[in-house]
Amino acid sequence: xxxxxxxxxxxxxxxxxxxxxxxxxxxxxxxxxxxxxxxxxxxxxxxxxxxxxxxxxxxxxxxxxxxxxxxxxx
Length: 74
Hints:
Blueprint: H1 12-29, H2 37-69
């Protein structure tokens, strides 16, 4: 998986795949898996931010579609 270009937002789906991979790494690490927890916390925060961003985009899109449907868009 190549990194996202600087300044580009990463999708929630991509972050979830990273969390899935990290879960496998933590499981395989056994008792020393706790060293990866800061990465999990970072990814969970990034996931929440990505989901909020996607919800905002969806809300804006729905608002526009509603206005277009009602003929009120300029």
